[in-house]
Amino acid sequence: MAKPFPRARLLLNPSAGRGRTANFAEKLQSQLGPMAGSIEVFFSKSAEDLKQLAAKSRRDSVDLLIVAGGDGTVHHAARGILEEPLGTVPTLAILPLGSANDLAYALGLSDGWWQKPGWKVAAIDHGWIQLNQNPPVAFVNGVGMGLNAMVTIRSRGIHCLRGIPLYTAALLQSLLWDWRNRVWKVLVDGQPIPEVEDSRGLLALSVLNGRREGNFDLCPGARLDDGQFVVMAVRPMSRFRALGLLPSLITGSFGNGKGPILMLDGTQIVVESPEDIPCHADGELVSVPGDGINKLIIRLVSKGLPVVVGPGFSSS
Questions:
Q1: Residue 255 class from Cβ within 10 Å (0-12 exposed, 13-18 middle, 19+ buried)?
Q2: Closest by alpha carbon to 77, among 46, 39, 100?
Q3: Distance (Å, rounded) from C-alpha 183 to C-alpha 305?
Q4: With 124 labelled, which of 71, 101, 138, 278 sits at a CA distance of 20 to 30 A?
Q5: Cα separation of 124 and 107, whole Å?
Q6: Neighbours of 192 (CB within 10 A)
Q7: Cα–Cα–Cα angle for 9, 285, 59, rounded to 5 degrees
Q8: Per-residue pLDDT reduced to its tens digit, 34-49
Q9: What is the pairing mode between strands 36-43 and 5-12?
């Protein structure tokens, strides 16, 4: 019986999931055997090394690139295959073994999906983010600016938690230390957001391709293959009101587009600021205070990335 993919590579980040991934190498290779005629295994030494290994996989015409780890690991692998100009983009498969698995969640990939029937291949959207005049950076799940990026920064200093507890603790730290309005000019498909232009600025801005950010289910209605981003703008509010919204943030009913939360769709978002814009892409920091980044251009590419999805994947 022919296997779905002639040639595959498995990339592992030994530090993903707080060090759990390296222990699974041989076991994973055996479990994944039915998917491909051959599977080569590579361990990355750094984020840049992971990116280069993924880029080489595209140049080498690998059919299936399997990435074991969390959203950060997947981000660097996706950058490698999407930013590499040579060769055909391989199908990306994610083994969700990290601290945050937002993209895998949106793709319907549960723990151990590769040992279960029903997975298939679909084409999803991805994005590019340009910081000032720098070369654009590829991303898949989403981008977060302002308070959202500061939560990511705070999470790097918390080593005893994972998943929602980790990001809830980081959010509470940001409520204390990073709570400030940022006066930004925001254009969505060339049009300003009137409510933002007329307000005292923004606390945070998310550009979502997937539904989750930092393990929080911000926009359950977001679809990875519908040809548009969901833009979520968080207008000024008190810390007390923000704490009141925390339960809905955890349960996935936060993004209802009411009150201080604005939601709209778009394919190109431009953000300009008189000061530095802290920003993460797929949970990986791409700009922090002090970098001098004060303009971001984010654009969508429709169905440019083939991926493995689970039977529960909701297509548009």
A1: buried
A2: 46
A3: 34
A4: 278
A5: 9
A6: 13
A7: 25
A8: 999 999 999 898 999 9
A9: parallel
In 180-268, where does DSSP find H-type helix? 194-197, 239-251
Q: Where are the beta strands (DSSP E) in 132-211?
A: 137-139, 142-146, 185-188, 191-192, 204-208
Distance CA 46, CA 65 (A): 18
Task: Tell whether 256 and 145 lie within a shared domain.
Answer: yes
Domain of residue 14, residue span: 5-98
Phi first, then psi: give them for residue 16, nearest 5 degrees: -65, 145
Q: Does residue 106 fall inside a structural domain?
A: no
For residue 180, the number of C-alpha atoms closer than 13 Å in the C-beta half-sphere is 11
The answer to whether 189 and 266 are in contact (CB under 8 A) is: yes
Tell me the average pLDDT across 15-32.
68
Cβ–Cβ < 8 Å for 49, 61: no
- Which H/E stretch holds residue 269? strand 268-272
Total domain count for the chain?
Answer: 2
Q: Are 21 and 69 in contact (CB under 8 A)?
A: yes
- The token pair at 244 is 């009141």
In-domain check, residue 110: no
pLDDT at residue 198 is higher than 60: no
C-alpha count within 13 angstroms, C-beta hemisphere, residue 127: 30
The closest alpha carbon to 178, from 218, 148, 141, belongs to 148
Question: Mean per-residue pLDDT for 283-310?
Answer: 96
Residue 34: CB partners within 8 Å, gap ≥ 6? 3
Same domain, 19 and 150: no
Q: Do both 36 and 163 map to the same domain?
A: no
Chain centroid to CA 260: how far? 24
